[in-house]
Write a structure and sequence with these properties.
This protein has 158 residues and is of the alpha+beta class. The chain has 3 helices and 6 strands; from the N terminus they run E-E-H-H-E-E-H-E-E. Strands 1-2-3-4-6-5 form a 6-stranded antiparallel β-sheet, covered by helices on one side. Helix 2 (55-76) runs antiparallel to helix 3.
Length: 158
């Protein structure tokens, strides 16, 4: 994974920045090996920045990253050989997103319990809702899409 160097500084706030605030963006090829690489990069970033998140929240975020990168690799790689993972951290929330250049927006379908795959977005929605967050899919200016999930920060012990 390569950090493209965009926006690694703190987010602007009226009462001064919190030390762990910022936006980080990594790019990677849309291949299977990028799934664990993205997961490790996000985990290491959160630890390095000292983001005050519970273990449960971090595990949820990492599962979301894994699911979203897996979807980009499986469904968008033909039209989007590269993907981007972005992590944005505010004083009270953390947002992860995966962007690719494939134009079609995925939909979370009702799970077929006989099917072994196809539940990734349902899982992302469940994790996000359980944490009290939000998720969505948006079109990008370049004609691709970005899928994101934002979760409220609940420091250890909260």
């Amino acid at each position: 994974m390569e950090n493209d160097g965009r926006g690694s500084g703190p987010l602007p706030r009226g009462d001064g920045p919190v030390p762990y605030e910022g936006v980080w963006r990594f790019t990677a090829p849309a291949v299977d090996a990028s799934v664990p690489q993205a997961r490790h990069a996000v985990r290491d970033l959160l630890a390095r920045q000292g983001v005050p998140a519970s273990d449960d929240l971090i595990q949820g975020l990492l599962l979301i990253v894994s699911e979203l990168v897996t979807n980009a690799v499986r469904h968008a790689a033909l039209l989007s050989p590269m993907l981007a993972v972005e992590v944005a951290v505010g004083a009270e929330w953390v947002r992860v997103s995966v962007e690719d250049n494939h134009p079609y927006r995925p939909t979370a379908l009702v799970a077929d319990h006989g099917q072994t795959g196809g539940r990734g977005l349902l899982l992302v929605r469940e994790i996000t809702q359980e944490a009290g967050g939000a998720c969505d899919v948006e079109h990008t200016a370049s004609g691709g899409k970005v899928i994101w999930a934002a979760l409220p920060l609940k420091p250890d012990g909260a």
